[in-house]
Design brief:
By secondary structure, the protein is mainly alpha-helical. The chain has one domain: Amino acid/polyamine transporter I (Up-down Bundle), CATH 1.20.1740.10. It is globular and about 75 Å long. The N terminus is likely disordered.
Length: about 475
């Protein structure tokens, strides 16, 4: 691969759309911790929620695909919002710049806790698989599994994104294919019963009052955290060899794969196990399906498959979160420390900070609370990014930018609709759902993490001004 630097002077153009797709193919695995969660609230109607959420992803990603070609130097959603909301350079604390940076920070917070969530799940599966671990405290297993995975991924990606993409090829085969095979198995073996779906669309006490509508909005917020997350394929915009064609290809092929897998997996679990069967195994309902259709050996192989799948999604989140921090530092919205690259164009500082932060998240030991908190960030990131697309379409200063890929005519209205669907509707929904499920802890944690951006941003603005004044002083001295 070429080691030429990209136009932005840091990240390098070393991958094509197939490699970007390989890294993003971890997204279908995001359904695993939510299968039982959704079935508990809406029974078989969860299938419809997943289908509508992937459809929402297509609607949003038409806008993101156009933004990717308008701003080829930008790193996905974090870069797009910051490129549109640039602010006034003469105003040190410009609110437009703050909004763009906050969108990027929200996106970072959405992806960042994935590392902790799936490290906990890996440790949990390993403990169930290996009797020798039975007496080891859960937290110890979680921390060790997290540390091993984080160190491995830092080493793999140290020499650039291409190495991570190669790992993505391997793990995509190890995880995505078995996931589909296990989901298809009940249809082949005759264990799938359509009546488990048609006879259990919604709970008997379900009504379309305001409380249940808020629950539905909260589920859509959590669903898009999984089912819309394939927009991550666009975050590597500065690292694609041909971003004009690579970004749309990677985005929409990944979207088609997600549409099939999200519907198929939830339908297979519901049809084969029934609602009661899912709720009896809410964390890992794929395991009884594998044992039912593939035998005891199939159950053990499924655990290893799930571990491979979880490493893949940790890889996706690790790369996405580190590049979000790099993007914010490059735009002057985070301290410069996070924008420093190694000799191979990899933001190692950001990766190390993220790994350490997630070791702290692991100490919480509650994946559901972490998911609920990070979904707040994802809702904010999508809402602001879609409004950034609307601004980019109507603001005259962006009218001359080249747009090799264009969303269909009038798409700014679609983006505006989904922008307001995210903010405030889904935000209100996830706050209400959190209050029912895990109390106010997740909501408080979510807003505290988002609020931490303000002092970091304030510090970075002063750092930028100090650097600028120093450069001006050196320039004046050299002139004299």
């Amino acid at each position: 691969m070429s080691n030429e630097k990209s136009e932005n002077g840091g990240l390098q153009r070393t991958i094509d759309w197939k490699q970007g797709l390989a890294i993003a193919l971890g997204v279908p695995v995001l359904i695993l911790p939510s299968i039982g969660y959704f079935a508990n609230y809406v029974w078989a109607f969860a299938i419809i929620i997943w289908a509508l959420s992937v459809f929402q992803g297509f609607m949003q990603n038409f806008a993101y695909g156009e933004l990717a070609t308008m701003f080829p130097k930008a790193s996905g959603l974090p870069g797009y919002a910051q490129s549109v909301f640039t602010g006034n350079a003469s105003n040190r604390y410009d609110l437009s710049k703050l909004l763009g940076g906050f969108s990027a920070w929200s996106y970072w917070f959405a992806w960042n806790p994935v590392l902790a969530i799936y490290s906990i799940l890996i440790g949990s599966y390993l403990k169930g698989l290996l009797p020798a671990l039975a007496g080891v405290p859960d937290l110890t297993i979680y921390l060790v599994s997290g540390a091993v995975v984080f160190i491995l991924l830092i080493l793999v990606n140290y020499r650039g994104l291409a190495g991570g993409a190669k790992l993505g090829y391997i793990l995509a085969v190890l995880s995505l294919a078995p996931l589909i095979i296990i989901a298809l198995a009940p249809f082949v073996t005759g264990h799938f019963e359509l009546n488990n779906i048609t006879g259990a669309w919604l709970p008997a006490d379900w009504s379309w009052d305001i409380q249940h509508i808020l629950i539905l909005l909260g589920l859509f917020a959590m669903a898009q955290w999984s089912a819309c997350a394939w927009e991550t394929a666009a975050i590597y915009g500065p690292e694609y060899k041909q971003p004009k064609s690579d970004v749309p290809k990677a985005l929409f092929i990944c979207g088609a794969i997600c549409l099939v897998t999200f519907i198929l997996v939830q339908a297979a679990c519901t049809g084969a196990l029934g609602i009661e069967g899912i709720l009896s195994e809410p964390v890992s309902p794929m395991l009884p399906i594998a044992q039912m259709t593939l035998g005891t050996i199939g159950g053990s192989l499924t655990i290893f498959m799930l571990i491979a799948a979880m490493i893949l999604i940790i890889q996706t989140a690790f790369l996405g979160a580190s590049r979000a921090m790099y993007s914010m530092a490059e735009e002057g919205n985070l301290p410069g420390f996070f924008g420093k690259m190694n000799a191979y164009g990899t933001p190692v500082n950001s990766m190390i900070v993220i790994a350490l932060l997630n070791m702290g998240f692991i100490c919480l030991g509650t994946p559901a609370a972490i998911v609920a908190a990070s979904a707040i960030g994802y809702v904010c990131a999508n809402g602001i990014s879609l409004l950034a697309y609307v601004k980019a379409k109507i603001d005259p200063k962006f009218s001359k930018l080249e747009r090799p890929f264009k969303a269909p005519g009038g798409w700014r209205h679609v983006a505006l609709f989904f922008g307001f669907f995210n903010l405030p509707l889904c935000l209100i929904g996830i706050i209400y759902l959190n209050s029912l499920e895990v109390g106010w802890t997740s909501t408080i944690v979510g807003f505290v993490v988002l609020a931490l951006y303000l002092p970091l941003w304030y510090y970075s603005q002063n750092e930028n001004r100090t650097t600028l004044e120093k450069d001006d002083s050196l320039s004046s001295e050299s002139t004299i």
